[in-house]
Every structure is written in C-alpha cells, then in structure tokens.
Amino acid sequence: MSPRRTVGNLLGLAVLSYLTQGPMHPYELSRTLRAHGDDRSVKFTHGSVYMVVEQLERAAFVVQHGTSREGHRPERTQYVLTDAGRRELADWMRELVGEPRHEYPGFVTALSFIGALPPAEVVALLHRRLEGLAVLRAEAQAVTDGALAAGLHPLFLIEEEYRIAQLDADAAFTRGFLHRIEGPEGWATAWQAQHDSTDHTGTESH
Amino acid sequence: MSPRRTVGNLLGLAVLSYLTQGPMHPYELSRTLRAHGDDRSVKFTHGSVYMVVEQLERAAFVVQHGTSREGHRPERTQYVLTDAGRRELADWMRELVGEPRHEYPGFVTALSFIGALPPAEVVALLHRRLEGLAVLRAEAQAVTDGALAAGLHPLFLIEEEYRIAQLDADAAFTRGFLHRIEGPEGWATAWQAQHDSTDHTGTESH
DNA sequence: TCTATCATGTAACCAGTTACATGATTTT
DNA sequence: AAAATCATGTAACTGGTTACATGATAGA
Question: Is residue B206 very low, low, confident or very high in pLDDT (cuts 50, 70, 90)?
Fold first, then answer.
C-alpha cells in the first residue's frame, strides 16, 4: 500500500502554500520561511527545502519555470505551482484541519514508562517541567504580542494561540499528576515499592 | 554537531524499558509491545524494532546474550541491557519528563496556512474536526475504562489521561476559533476578501 | 586586499518503511 | 495433506540530516 500522499513531509505543504504567491527558487523559499517565522510551525533545514522541492517536482505538483539571474549571482531555478499542486494544497489542508490524527509526542511515550523512575524523582522533574512550560508559553506570547503590535491580523497568529492552549492543558495536567502522587491518593508509596522490586535503572551509580 | 542522543528514536526508549525486565529477542519485543498496547504511545512497525535494536547495540546500550532455541523454531538472538543502557534509559526519561520540547503537530502547520482556504470551508472543517476529536477521546476513554476494570493501577494509564486532556484542549480551542470566525468579531468577511484577492487554490474546479 | 558572511547548491550518510523470504505450527 | 497463519529475520528503497563546496558581495 503506497502512503496516502506522494509527498508526506509537511514542509511540502508550506512550499505549496508559498508558491501560490508566485514562482520562487528553493533558496528564496528557505529564507522567506525563516523570515516569516514559519520555523516555529514547520520543522525544516536548508537542505530539506531542496529535497522537498524535488519530491514535489517528481509528483508534478510544481514545475521548473526557467532560471533567473541577478547580477553575477549564481543561476537560480524557479518553480511554479501546477493545477495538481493547487488541488493537493487544498486537499491536504482539508485533511489536516478536518481530520484530527493520533499523534506521538515524546511526553506520552515517557509517561507510559514512568514507572522506570522513582516517584520522588518524578516529582522533582514535574516541577522542572512546569517551569519549562512557562518559558515556552512566554515565548509564544511574545511572538503574538510583537506581531499584533506590528499590526498583523490575529488570524495569522492562530497557530500560536493553539500552542498556548496546549501548553496550558499540559501544565494543568502536570499539576494534577503531582497532586495524585503527593496527595491523599498516595500513589507514591505503592509506586516506590513496585519500583524497588522490579528494576534498578542505574540511578545509584554516578 | 552530532545529535544529542546516539539513538534518537523513541522506540529505543521502549526497548530499553522492556529490557530492564530481563533479556528478550527482537520479535518478542515487537509482540510484547503490541500486546501491551504500547503502539498507542510509540510509533513502530515490526521492521523498526530490529533496526532500533541494532542501533542500541552499536551504541553499546544492549549486547547479545547468546541465542536460545525452543522446539524446532528458528534461533533467536537475545539481548540484555548494559549498565550504559540503564543510565541512558534513566537520563532519557529525565529529559523527556523534565524538559518540555517545542513540537510540530500537523494541525499547527495547517493553522499557519489557514488563509489558503476560504472561511466558509474552514467552518465546515472545524465542525468535522470536533466530531473526530470526540471519537479519539472515546477511544482513549474506552482503553482506560477497560484496563481499570481489569484491575490495572491508574498510574499505568496516565498517558491516556494526558491524551484526553490534550484532546479536550484541542476541542475547546476549535470551538473558540469557530466563534471568532462566525461571531461578532466577524473574521469571515475580511478573510474572504483577502482570500479572493491573493490566491485561488483550485477549489472551484470540480 | 584579506576575511567574513551571504547565496546557492550537491553529495554522503544514516534512519525508517515496506516488501519479501523461509521454516514451523495449526487448522480444515 | 493442503492451506493458512505464526515466528523470525533480511534486503531494498526512500526520506531526512549534515557536512561540504564554490562563487559573490560587504566590511575591516
């Protein structure tokens, strides 16, 4: 079974989206993405932009539009969107917005093996986590505040708002978890006993 | 700059965790992970288990422990945890729990290009999203209900609880977004105007 | 003019996924 | 005894990341 989409990398979505504005060459895409702060929403590096443009070309979502030259700079290969590319962009967006997918964040994985750490240490770590979450939240807030002050319409900051909502939910969960370890439910004692009996993860050797 | 961890795949964490219980061979790991429902928290396939075990071996977090044979079945290569492996497990867990990381879920990417779709369509998609979120939530709830009824301690279901918290936050955000599009703030009209003027993503062609 | 940084791209390497292979059991 | 499924593993392909290469401009 071939994967649902010929190009699965979300960086491809970003490229398709930018190409609706007109032809660009890969380096320009890379710079523009970074300049617009899209590296907060899409993971990419300089090299991966070239890769994904190649993939989009193989899939016929973009085609070379000729090369342009400016001064004595190297030649640049420009790409334009095809009709198939426009359709792919719209279809992909519809899927991402309309069909929530099961995701695998690292914290979920860690939680499912949380018994590998002793409860006292987990308590300390969860407190550090709360601090880290506050930092991330402040960053997101700073980004939106700055952009709003510069006159950007809040629609273009909606992804940061989503992020803040998720961070707040994460923090609320973390506090709840702490209470259940330390509070009257007393998970700590049973947990410690089971931890002692089942494994020793090398914590004692420095 | 070499990546922070020699083995970065979270499936490696799962393997290290299971190997604290004693030696296993890759196939057994694969079966056990699936039997315990860990495929909800870690993305893996049959083949990737073999790959990650190889990587762990190269990194000296596990070593071959000899082979075992049962009946006339093929020989199986067993692996055991090394001391370095135990330390890596503990250290990795500490990082994942204590240091929240910036993540890149697909919905965030889509939100940052949401202007590519017309507002009326987005409204419809967000309603579909709410249904999908309810389904995912019900699944998570069913998993925990079943396991609790079977007598499992809630500590071992904490990752599902986290998931539910995130799904609820997602749904709350989605409702808020809908209100701002449709409500008195009236994002819809400005949005539609800007959408008409800047791009046409092939929606009109059948 | 030397050095640093920008602009643009390629190549080599490692990770991850999919498909295939083969013998052992179990079912019909 | 044929077919199906389980148990175990390997190989081939594709994707993604990192490092490198090279000419152009700008700053000291």
Answer: very low
